[in-house]
Amino acid sequence: MKLHYFFLFLVLVILNLSTTFGLSSVNSLVPSEALLSADHYHGTCPNAEAIISQTVAAWVKKDPTLAPSIIRLHFHDCAIRGCDASILLNNQGGERNAVNSKTLRGFQMIDDIKSQLEKSCPRMVSCADILTAAARDATILAGGPFWEVTFGRKDGKISLASDANSVPHGHENITTLLQFFQTRGLDILDLVALSGSHTIGRSTCYSFIDRLYNFNGTRKPDPSLSYSFLNLLRKRCQGLMNLVYLDVITPRTFDSTYYTNLVKKLGLLSTDQSLFSDSRTAPFVQAFATQPFLFTSQFAVSMVKLGNVQVLTRPNEGEIRVNCNYVNTI
Ligand code: HEM
Ligand SMILES: *[C@@H]1O[C@H](CO)[C@@H](O)[C@H](O)[C@H]1NC(C)=O
Ligand SMILES: *[C@@H]1O[C@H](CO)[C@@H](O)[C@H](O)[C@H]1NC(C)=O
GO terms for molecular function, please (predicted)? Predict the structure, then answer.
């Protein structure tokens, strides 16, 4: 009789081991982003998505310029080490304190969301997921499309300023941009569609001043810049840190005017205008300029892809940060 129980025990142990093994081997076969899901927090923090969207709405109502800033923050997060909230870590020598991150904004809004979530469901919702959902909510508030956000990203523990300085800053050629996107699983269509977020938001003059006076060492302005726009920008750019709208025609509306601008030589950044002058990207610019719905629907698709870049979703990866500014101490 005792021996029977022992064998039963043995069978159970083996069964248990094999399912654990089986599951983890399945997990290691599927891509990391396949482990994200829309109902990830349904059991542990059912109000997470609502708390995020309500808080984003409150902040953007007070300061509409935060909508574009939060979308950009999400891009800068996903561009380096994937969407792991590494951009939020506030350590010396980290991404957030890199030269390239100087004009990033929206950190306080993320901290506010996080502190509310820590009250409702402590240690449950990652900063990477908060940033991803907030970028979607900010897009809608600016008049852009909706897409479903999936959850389950974990927060990374590494953040290096040297990495952040490799994020494109507006002077790259299309080949370099394509390579940067491709190494992150994003293609040429994603490059053109995601650049469309420059339909809202602002840039410092610092990021395009070379186009106004001494383009590419020629001591002449960029010939692909409209003459009247050039004169306007020279007036607005008396100081390098002055801010100028990225979309000069409809600066606060999420629409396809960004692309019609490029056709009229009204692109603000050199990289924006290059999308129209390069034969690989120009057809997509033309398509989005003439078919606004094509842009908004592709933007949603490409934002989902951006939010899936190199996500940390496996049990042994990352952590749920308690404070988005710091790696957990215990
Ligand atoms: C394709 C390569 C890209 C380049 C070269 C680029 C470059 C820039 C630059 C130089 C600025 C202005 C920074 C400053 O001077 O303050 C800017 C702003 C912005 N970028 Fe990009 N960007 C790129 C892609 C993206 C992507 C993929 C997104 C989002 C999905 C994005 C969203 C934004 C937004 C919303 C702003 C305005 C931020 C604000 O108003 O605070 N960008 N970008
Ligand atoms: C693009 O830029 C890279 C890096 O600056 C450079 O090596 C390459 O020659 C450029 N390509 C073209 C087509 O201009
Ligand atoms: C910039 O100058 C280099 C060398 O003079 C040239 O090869 C390149 O095509 C120029 N780039 C642009 C965008 O005009």
Answer: heme binding; lactoperoxidase activity; metal ion binding
- 245 sits in which H/E element: strand 243-245
Give the pLDDT confidence of 172-183 residue by residue, as tens digits: 999 999 999 999
Decide: 216 in ligand 2 pocket, CB within 6 A: no
Cα 94 from chain centre: 18
Rounded distance between C-alpha atoms, residue 191 and residue 180, angstroms: 10
Q: Can you list the domains of the chain with their CATH numbers?
A: 48-164 (1.10.520.10), 186-306 (1.10.420.10)
DSSP of 113-132: HHHHHHHHSTTTS-HHHHHH
DSSP assignment of 53-105: HHHHHHHHHH-TTHHHHHHHHHHHHHHTTSSSSGGG---TTSGGGSGGGTT--
pLDDT score, position 29:
81
8 Å CB contact between 278 and 286: no
Nearest-angstrom CA–CA distance, 98 and 228: 34
- For residue 210, the SS3 value is helix
What local confidence, expressed as pLDDT, does residue 81 receive?
Answer: 98
| CA–CA gap between residue 269 and residue 28 (Å, rounded) | 41
Distance 244 CA to ligand 2 centre (A): 27
- Residue 166 beta carbon below 6 angstroms from any ligand 2 atom: no
Q: What does the pLDDT look like over 291-311, one tens digit per residue? A: 999 999 999 999 999 999 999
Terminal alpha carbon distance of the chain: 47
pLDDT band at 4 (very low <50, low <70, confident <90, very high): low
CA torsion, points 50, 54, 56, 61, in degrees to nearest 10?
A: 160
Show the tokens assigned to 141: 């508030």
DSSP 6: H
Whether the CB of 173 sits within 6 Å of ligand 2: yes
Pairwise CA distance, residues 129 & 139, whole Å: 16
Give the C-alpha separation, 248 to 225, whole Å. 13
Atom 13 in ligand 2: residue holding the nearest Cα: 175
